[in-house]
Specification:
By secondary structure, the protein is mainly α. Helices cover 58% and strands 9% of the residues. A hairpin with a 6-residue loop joins strand 1 and strand 2.
Length: 212
């Protein structure tokens, strides 16, 4: 939901290019909003207002509204901070997955020597990796697929029991049409017998009930 933070009159804005750069640098390393504001020398509330105004203006422009030049600095701040946060999150996630797979590089060395047989220069690369850690993969699964791997995820047996219970609740509904058809047939025959001169007819047996 957009907030009404655009084009407010008053004193000149504290938003400068230096402060924008400071907030973006802090966001790029994953700093919290309060720390990013502190790095820029403003309060958290001020930074929140700037970001809200930039977000509202950016969304308005995406919706086809005419761009207001007074919003340019706020839109620039919002977009740069969002991009910095996205890149930081992507890099961090990549390292988590590498840690789980054991492909995270801890140390890399390059040794150059001359082969005594061929006399050629040889470059040898030595890489040391972090040992695979299943907890990193579990952390990622619990947050990306919480319904399956989160703390409140249900076991296969629980899911199967719930499915069975749902099927049992549906059984009476499935049997109802057959019972109604049998009842209608018996009622029709009973009414026919009340007609003068109508031959007696044998009533069909009631349809078996699934409620027993």
């Amino acid at each position: 939901m957009r907030t009404n933070n655009r084009r407010r009159p008053g004193r000149p804005s504290l938003l400068t290019s230096e402060r924008v750069d400071a907030v973006v640098r802090a966001s790029a390393v994953g700093a919290a909003t309060s720390l990013a504001a502190e790095a820029a020398g403003v309060s958290r509330a001020t930074l929140a207002r700037w970001m809200a105004r930039g977000r509202d203006a950016a969304e308005a422009r995406e919706d086809g509204e005419a761009a207001d030049p007074h919003d340019d600095a706020y839109v620039d701040l919002f977009r740069r901070v969002e991009l910095a946060r996205a890149r930081m999150a992507t890099q961090a996630l990549s390292r988590v997955l590498q840690a789980g797979a054991g492909s995270l590089v801890l140390e890399e060395r390059v040794r150059t020597y001359t082969d005594p047989v061929t006399g050629l220069d040889v470059e040898e690369r030595q890489v040391r990796y972090l040992r695979p850690d299943w907890r990193a993969a579990a952390w990622w699964l619990a947050r990306v697929f919480p319904e399956h791997y989160g703390p409140n995820a249900k076991s296969f047996d629980q899911v199967l029991d719930e499915f069975t219970a749902q099927e049992l609740r549906r059984e009476p509904d499935r049997a109802a049409p057959a019972q109604l058809a049998s009842l209608a047939e018996r009622l029709e025959l009973a009414l026919a017998q009340t007609t003068p001169g109508a031959p007696a007819a044998e009533l069909p047996a009631p349809a078996p009930s699934s409620f027993a």
